[in-house]
Write a structure and sequence with these properties.
By secondary structure, the protein is an alpha+beta fold. It has four domains: about 230 residues, Up-down Bundle (Rhopdopsin 7-helix transmembrane proteins); about 90 residues, Beta-Lactamase (2-Layer Sandwich), CATH 3.30.450.20; about 80 residues, Helix Hairpins (Orthogonal Bundle), CATH 1.10.287; about 140 residues, Heat Shock Protein 90 (2-Layer Sandwich). It contains 18 helices and 14 strands. It has a five-stranded antiparallel sheet, sandwiched between helices. It has a five-stranded mixed sheet with strand order 9-11-12-14-13, covered by helices on one side. Strand 13 and strand 14 form a beta hairpin. Helix 6 packs antiparallel against helix 7. It starts with 7 loop residues before the first helix and ends in a 6-residue tail after the last strand. About 30% of the residues are buried.
Length: about 550
Amino acid sequence: MAVSTTSPLFLLYVGLFVVAALACFVSLTRLQRITNADTRRGLWALLLTSGGWATAHVGFLVSSTISLQLAWYTFGLVLGLAAVGAWLYFCSAYTGRTYHRNPTYRRLAIAVYIVLVAVKVTNPLHHGYFTTTAVATPFPHLSVYTGPLHWTAMGLSYALAFVGYFMLLELFTEIDLDTRALLVLVGITGLPVVFDIIGYTTPYLIDITYEPLGVAVFAVGVAFVYIDQFDAIQLAGERDEPIIALDASNHIRDTNRAAQTLFPDLDGAEGTPLKTTLPRVADCLDSDNAILKLQQEDHLRYYHVTETPYGTAKAGLGRTILLTDVTDRERYREELVRQNERLEQFASLVSHDLRNPLNVATGRFELLREDVEEIAENEHAAAIERALTRMEDLIRQILSLARDGQPVEQWDAVLLSSVAQNSWEMVETNAAELRVEDDLTFKADPTRLQRLFENLFRNSIDHGGPDVTVSVGVLPDRPGFYVADDGAGIPESDRESVFDPGYTTREEGTGFGLAIVAETVAAHGWKIQVTESEIGGARFEILGVETVE
């Protein structure tokens, strides 16, 4: 069939679908600015399939033979159906749902797609999907008459597409940001249905699917005009916290209701610099302290201020400011700091008040030792000396317990083998042996970590004997390490009590060694548990360390 290349309407049709294809393909280059990966993938698939669909329409219109026209038309049917799946994937991801990740839905979608594609490509055998005839109006072209299988597939496609529209409409109506522009763009994607109906029922338009034109307008609008707002709306849909959207010049572009309630000055502040309208928020972003304190009526609240640049690859395109209420956490942290300060003051006071008379007693005892020659053989004098030494140990360990329980503020990368070896050298080990089975690099306070190992090593030697073998290694299935020995072990009934201050099974022990270990572990945010080693001894496992590659 000869194709008319002079009809203005024909040229208009070809031109519109060429522009639609180019708009979809060019818009693909802008999608890297979309933050959410799933949304980016869904929109990429939608534009790719829609651009290919428009290209197939161009091929259908300009081809000079019926066989080529049919091939292009069938190719367009296949891509059009794929575009429905891409649309649903995009809508699910953009609205924060997980349908697109559900394995059952994905398998079902693939199965339906394969069945419908098979029906379309085998149309020459059954002719149940469409038939064709050459017509001369409104310009010479191959007119397609749809059959019952077409209407079944089209009904399913439009029903699924409507589900996507419903998800987007629900998002746009629930959040507080201005969504009118995006709502119009989404509406335009459905507008070509009107042209479909006109083409099917009247001779004024040819009977062809016009959906790629609507997707092209949507693609250009999102990718080139409203991409920052597109990103901000998705973030706002995922959050109930106050949100402030800024443009590339740090001027306020949009806010949600929660932000306006928190900051009344935001009312009518669109277009003004953040520094001028909310200087304290701007200062939080520019400083190392991201906590904003706000006095609300008769109580103080704390907000963690974070920013998310638009796009994954570039900054400077605008950003979204999120304020998360962390009042409970900050109050707990401040109370913990005050409690630790009181604890250290108490420990220092007690140790100071005890150390003074202890030093006097120790000094007088040394003078007595010099004056009385037989004192070294006196059992009462020996008991006094042991008591004075024990008091000194208690004072030292009370101070250590108070200080090691404070939250860690200085984190450094440490090597398990190095810390273990250095700590072993600080302990009186006699004939004991240390074995470092494997190694690990993780973050910790090196000084406190060394005291942790020293106390664990002393515990193994005190309870396992002078020739005990102590092993240090990495936990095989979790981020952490262990210290184990081949001693007598710890009875299961005592494993919860061994970390209590003052708990000891040795008459000469202070009972603070493992308590200091537990406090050090807690100060790092780790966890510790007692189990049995492979050969029946004690095994202490420290869990939750942050490893360093």
